[in-house]
Amino acid sequence: MNSPSTETTSGPPWDTPPASSAESAAGQGRASEPGRGQGFLPGRSGLVIPLVLAGISTYLVYGMVTMTVPENTDFPGPRFYPMLLAIVGYVLAALLVLDVLRHPEKRDAEDAASYTFHSDWKAVAWLVGGFLLFALGIEFLGWIIAGALLFWCVARGVGSKRPVFDLSLALVFSSLIYLGFAVGLGLNLPSGLLGGL
Amino acid sequence: MESLNLLAEGFQGALTPMNLLWVLVGCLLGTAVGVLPGLGSSMAVALLLPMTFALDPTAAFIMFAGVYFGGLFGDSTMGILMNTPGQGSAIASTFEGHKMALAGRAPQALATAAIGAFIGGMTASLLVVFLAPRLAELSAMFGPQEYFALALFAFVATSSVVADSAVKGLASLVIGLAIATVGIDAMSGVERFTLGAPQIFDGISLITVTVAILALGEVLHVASRLKRERNPRQVNVKGRPFLKRHELKEAAPAWARGTAIGLPFGVIPVGGSEVPTFMAYDLERRLDRRRKDPQFGKGAIRGLAAPEAAGNATTGTAMGALLALGLPVSSTAAIMLAAFQQYGLQPGPLLFERSTDLVWPLLASFFVAMVVLLILNLPFAPLWAKLLLIPKPYLYAGITVFCGLGVYATSGRIFDLILLLALALLGFAMRRYGVPLAPLMIGMVLGPLAESSLRDALLSSGGDWSILVSGPIPLVLYGVLLLILAITVRSKVVNRTRRDV
Prior knowledge:
The complex is a heterodimer. By secondary structure, chain A is mostly helical.
C-alpha cells in the first residue's frame, strides 16, 4: 500500500548471481543514487532491508555466543528464543535478496522527470544532520537553542526559502515549548548556555 | 444489566469537566493530524505517548481514544477532498468518496462519511460494553500455551494478511521481536544483547521505538519525496452539509452492512481496519452491479458509506479486544498497549477486576468521543481543510521538534536521542521499500509475552512441544489462523487475475 509504484514492476526473470556478491554490493547500493546508469545496482537498493535483517540476526548470534548463562539453567534458557529469531531472520533475509534480484525496481521512462518514488537525499541529509546536532548539543546548548536549530534545519531541508525569518520562528517555537513544558508542566529540559544568564 | 450499571458509573467518571476537556483535546488533535495529508492517527498517538507521564491514566487514555477515532474521521475528510488517504483504512472510502466530490457533491460525501463513522463506532462501542467483560472472563482461563497461541496468531495474521508481501511483513515482525529481546532476561536474569551498555539493561524503550518508527521515520519519508510529488488538487466544498431523505435512504443499508462487516474484525488480528473496509467496499460494488442503474464509478454514496462504517466499527471492537485480551490488532492499538504498560497496567482480565475506575470511564468516553467528533466533523469539515494552509516546512519542523521533545523528556538521555535517529532511519528505509510497520510495532509490544509464555509452557512440560497444541483454546486459535491464511491466499490469487478498481 505504501508504494504502489513498486508493485507493478514484475520484471523479466533475471539471472540470479550468488547471494554473497549481492550482500557485498548492497553496502554500496545505499550510497549510490538509485536509477542512475545501467549497471547492477540501479533498482536494487532494496537490498538494504535484507542486509539490515541479516545484520540483526548476526548480532543475535554474536550475543548468544558471548552470553554468560548460569550452569544449571533448564532447557528453554535465555538463548533459546533469540536463536529461533536468528534462524527465521536469516531465512527471510535470503528470501528478500532473491526477491530484489528477480524484481528490481524499474524507473518508468515517461516518468523520469517527476521522480515519483526516488528519494531526495538532500532533504534527508538536512533532517538527519539537524537531528544529530540537536541530540549532541542539547545538554550544552540547552533546549531553546538546540530545538531552534533542529527546527531551522528541518524547515530548510523540506524547502523553506527564508532562512532569517525561519530563525526567528524557530526561536519563538522552541521558547514556547520551553515555557509550556518546562516551566508549565515541569518537564526536565536543560537550560544550557542560557541558564547562566 | 451489570454492564449497564458499570457504564453509568463510567459516564459519571467521563463527564467531569476535566475529562470532557481531554476528550475534546484528543478529538481535535486526532482530526487535525488525520486531515494533514500523509499523516495518520498512529503518528498522533505516537507523538502523544511520551506525554503519558504528565497525565493520570484515565485522562491519558480518554485523550488517546479521542485521537484514535479523530484520526479516522480526519483521514476520510482528506481522502474525499484531495484523494490523499493518510492510512490504509481510508483508501477504500476514497475511491467513490473522491468521485462524489469531483461530481460537486463534496459536502454530502463528507456528511455520509461522518455519519457512517458515527454509526459504526457507536455500534461497536455498545458491543464492547457487553462483550468485553465476558471476553475478559474467558481470558482469565488462559495459561502460557493459550497466550502463546494468541501472540502467534497476532504475529502471523498481521504480518502475512495485511502486508502486500508476506516475506516483508514477517521481516518487519522479526525486527520488532529482536528489538524486544534486548535487555535483562526476565526469567533468568541474564544480560542479553546489551554489549554491556547500562542504558539498555531495562531494554530498548518502547517510547523511543514508537516515536522513531511511526513519527520521525514518517517525517523522513515525507521529506524525501516532498519536492517530487505532484501537488494534489483540493476540491472546493460548497453547499449543504446535510443529507436529504432519499440520500439517507440510499446510504442506510450500506451503513448497516459496513458496520456488520467491520465488527468482527476488531477481534481478529489482521492489522486494523484495512481488510474490512475493502471487504465492505467490494460487497457494495457487487450489489451495485446487480441494480438497474449502477452507480459505482460515478460517485456512489453506498461505496463511501459502507467502508466508513466498517472502518470505525473495527476500530471500536479493536479497543474491546485490547482491553479484554491485551491483544493489539493495529499499530495504533499497539501504542495504546504500550501506554498501558507505561502505567504498569496489563490489559486483560485483571484490568476489568482491578481497574474498574479506569476501564468504564474509558468505555464511556468512546461514546462521548463519537458525539464530539460528529459535531466537529459534520458542519465544520470544510474548516478543517484550512489546516492545509500551514506551510509544509514548518509543519514537519514542528513535528520533528516534538519527536525530540517527547523522547528526551521521558528518558533524559542523549543516548535515546541517537537511538531514535537510528531507528527512524530504519523506519524510513522500511517505508521506502514497502515493508509494513505494524508487524514491527506488534512484535515489539507482544514479543516479551510470546517469549515468556513459550518458555513457561516448555518448562512446565519438560521440553515437550506438544503442550503448545493441547487444550481446546489453542487448537481453535490455530484452526482459525489456518482458515484466515487460506482465505487470504485465495483472495490474493483472485485479485491478481481480476482487477477493476
